[in-house]
Design a protein that fits this description.
By secondary structure, the chain is α/β, with parallel strands linked by helices. The chain is built from nine helices and 39 strands. The strands form six sheets. The protein has a 16-stranded parallel sheet that branches. A nine-stranded parallel sheet has the order 14-17-20-23-26-28-30-33-36, with no helix packed on it. A hairpin with a 2-residue loop joins strand 2 and strand 3. Helix 7 crosses helix 8. It is elongated and about 105 Å long. The termini are far apart. The chain binds uridine-diphosphate-N-acetylglucosamine and calcium ion. Uridine-diphosphate-N-acetylglucosamine binds next to helix 3 and strand 10. The site of uridine-diphosphate-N-acetylglucosamine has 26 residues, from helix 3 and strand 10.
């Protein structure tokens, strides 16, 4: 069992942002949120987030399911972890320390490091990496037998120590009691005048305890984000990871470099995703779907064999065999049935649409309950808003709606109704009726007022 402590109090000056660094996003999810989620996946029983810089902006991102400790002055990584002491002082498990700006760390790696720590009977384990260019990082100083002696920061390192290629990832596993004890020993006597978390290792070592180094297999996992270039690099790596997972599961992604899929998205096999597609949030896509170019799909359930082209789908459900687009805007709150056609320039909001209905072109339906096998002519509009309130309309089964019809909500239209083109429907229509609601055409023959006839 372990508790994660996530350091997320820093400024992130190099992002040149009004937002704190850790709430910038990779594949649609905040940097610190990736770290929280991975540590939960790895089995953390509790997560403590250390926040500070612009705490009010970070809190909503992590506050719902992590404990919060506020570090109001950033006096170093050791000082940051000291803020977590109230949460871990009587804790008997392990404490995993992670950095809120290192989103590529994986649950399996956290788990493996904890396992290594446990098996080795260490008091502390530092997660390390071998880098071709170690500059900027703390260097791992090991004894001849491989035990970790200490970590030297770049600014405090001798020329010899600077040559070391094994670096401190900034992630650790500690026994809680050892960590609390060693934090109490820290002083800011170093080049940066900070409380270095890394110094805890030396204190533990000098106290005769065992320190280990767990060397990571994939150096990408320890990439910290300091600027927008690194943010982009992490985006690319994460995107590739997620897309590869779906391709391995039987999804065809024609051009993965242009496809962004959120971590929580599920996609069935034999679905084909073409270029420039973004699928985010809590979205589930079935099997045999075709998601053609330029789509954005968010928090939606797409059943099997659905075809979507160049459209936006938000917080909606789309039934089996339905087609959407090109250029449809499916706004939040729709429940669309099976074999429905939502064609070009169609906007839907908060509708329930039953099976086999066709909304082929240039139509807005909002706040409506629509039956089976309805055919909407081109240019249908629900007038669902009077400037103050919104109203629902209901349209029955097998209704034929002539082109350019307006429904002034609320109205109820029965089953098997036929509405003449150009009608403005303001009153309910009973079953089986033909409804015509438009001015009669008048032709003034031989009209002298027409200047072209002069
Ligand atoms: C730290 C390590 C270094 C390691 C490197 C890995 C120390 C002394 N050094 O260096 O060995 O190689 O990380 O990236 O620990 N933070 C706070 N409050 C603070 C200071 C920092 O929350 O008062 C947070 C930062 O927001 C960041 C993390 O801790 O997420 C690391 O801090 P940073 O200042 O970047 O440490 P480094 O100097 O890079
Ligand atoms: Ca850093």
């Amino acid at each position: 069992m372990f508790t994660s402590v996530i350091l997320a109090a820093g400024m992130g000056t190099r992002m040149k942002s009004e937002m704190p660094k850790v709430i910038h996003k990779v594949c649609g999810k905040e940097l610190v949120r990736w770290v929280v989620d991975e540590s939960k996946k790895a089995g953390a029983e509790r997560v403590v987030s250390i926040i500070g810089h612009r705490a009010e902006m970070v809190r909503p991102v992590v506050g719902a399911d992590t404990e919060i400790a506020v570090q109001s002055e950033q006096l170093g990584t050791g000082h940051a972890v000291m803020q977590a002491v109230p949460f871990i002082k009587d804790y008997e498990g392990y404490v995993v320390i992670l950095s809120g700006d290192t989103p590529l760390i994986r649950a399996e790696t956290i788990k493996a490091a904890v396992e290594y720590h446990r098996e080795s009977n260490n008091s502390a384990t530092v997660i390390t990496a071998e880098l071709p260019d170690a500059s900027g990082y703390g260097r791992i100083v090991r004894a001849a037998d491989g035990a970790v002696l200490k970590i030297v920061e770049q600014k405090d390192a001798t020329e010899e120590e600077k040559k070391i290629r094994e670096i401190n990832s900034g992630m650790y596993v500690f026994n809680a009691d050892a960590l609390v004890w060693a934090l109490g020993k820290l002083t800011p006597n170093n080049a940066q005048g900070e409380y270095y978390l890394t110094d805890t290792l030396e204190h533990l070592k000098n106290d005769g305890r065992r320190i280990g180094g767990y060397t990571i297999a994939d150096n990408d996992e320890i990439r910290g984000i300091n600027n927008r270039v690194q943010l982009h690099e992490a985006e690319t790596i994460m995107q590739e990871r997620i897309n590869t997972r779906h391709m391995t599961n039987g999804v065809t992604i024609v051009q993965p470099s242009s496809v962004i899929i959120g971590d929580d998205v599920e996609i069935g096999n034999d679905t084909i995703i073409s270029s420039n597609v973004v699928i985010m949030g809590n979205t589930k896509i079935g099997s045999g779907c075709v998601i053609e170019m330029n789509c954005k799909i968010e928090n939606s359930v797409i059943k099997d064999n659905v075809h979507i082209t160049s459209s936006v789908v938000l917080n909606s459900e789309i039934g089996e065999g339905t087609s959407v687009g090109p250029f449809a805007y499916v706004r939040p709150g729709n429940k669309i049935g099976r074999n429905v056609r939502v064609g070009d320039f169609v906007e839907l909001k908060n509708d329930v649409i039953d099976d086999d209905t066709k909304i082929s072109h240039l139509t807005y339906l909002g706040d409506s309950d629509i039956g089976k096998n309805v055919n909407f002519g081109c240019g249908t509009v629900t007038c669902n808003y009077d400037g103050k309130d919104k109203f629902r309309s209901k349209i029955g089964d097998n209704v034929f709606v002539g082109c350019n019809t307006n429904f002034v909500s609320p109205v109820n239209v029965g089953d098997n109704v036929y509405i003449a083109a150009g009608s403005t429907i303001t009153e309910d229509i009973p079953d089986n009726a033909l409804s015509i609601a438009r001015a009669r055409q008048v032709n003034k023959t031989d009209w002298k007022g027409n200047k072209y006839n002069k």
